[in-house]
Automatic annotation (TrEMBL):
<dbReference type="Pfam" id="PF01253">
    <property type="entry name" value="SUI1"/>
</dbReference>
<comment type="similarity">
    <text>Belongs to the SUI1 family.</text>
</comment>
<dbReference type="GO" id="GO:0003743">
    <property type="term" value="F:translation initiation factor activity"/>
</dbReference>
<keyword id="KW-0648">Protein biosynthesis</keyword>
<protein>
    <submittedName>
        <fullName>Eukaryotic translation initiation factor 1</fullName>
    </submittedName>
</protein>
<dbReference type="InterPro" id="IPR005874">
    <property type="entry name" value="SUI1_euk"/>
</dbReference>
<feature type="region of interest" description="Disordered">
    <location>
        <begin position="1"/>
        <end position="26"/>
    </location>
</feature>
<dbReference type="InterPro" id="IPR036877">
    <property type="entry name" value="SUI1_dom_sf"/>
</dbReference>
<keyword id="KW-0396">Initiation factor</keyword>
<feature type="domain" description="SUI1">
    <location>
        <begin position="32"/>
        <end position="102"/>
    </location>
</feature>
<comment type="function">
    <text>Probably involved in translation.</text>
</comment>
<dbReference type="InterPro" id="IPR001950">
    <property type="entry name" value="SUI1"/>
</dbReference>
<dbReference type="GO" id="GO:0003729">
    <property type="term" value="F:mRNA binding"/>
</dbReference>
Length: 113
């Protein structure tokens, strides 16, 4: 009786690494993230990051502050790049403002509680 070795068939050999062809797994480059952070008590902070380079963050911050009647600042972060911080919960206002300025709604992610 002879034992056949089935020629060491690997069913996953043609597939390769499942994550090798999906280059956007875990990447956040093409999204604009609007988050809220709790400070102390009822005070909150709204952050906006991932803004495309063609938009001037300083001018956008000035427009936000004037439109929403709140204070804000521009923070340089080594991981996230330039982050706009605004006082209060301004998530929906920022989102509608950016959509009115021509940024597609599917590229804006609103996070928070």
């Amino acid at each position: 009786m002879s034992v056949q070795n089935l020629n060491t068939f690997d069913p996953f050999a043609d597939e390769g690494d499942p994550l090798s062809n999906t280059q956007e797994v875990g990447s956040q480059q093409n999204y604009i993230h609007i988050r809220i952070q709790q400070r102390n008590g009822r005070k909150t902070l709204t952050t906006l990051q991932g803004l495309p380079k063609e938009y001037d963050a300083k001018k956008l911050l000035k427009a936000f502050k004037k439109e929403f009647a709140c204070n804000g600042t521009l923070v340089d972060d080594e991981e996230a790049g330039q982050v706009i911080q605004l006082q209060g919960d301004q998530r929906l206002k920022i989102s509608t403002f950016l959509v009115e300025e021509g940024i597609p709604k599917n590229s804006i992610k609103v996070h928070g509680f």
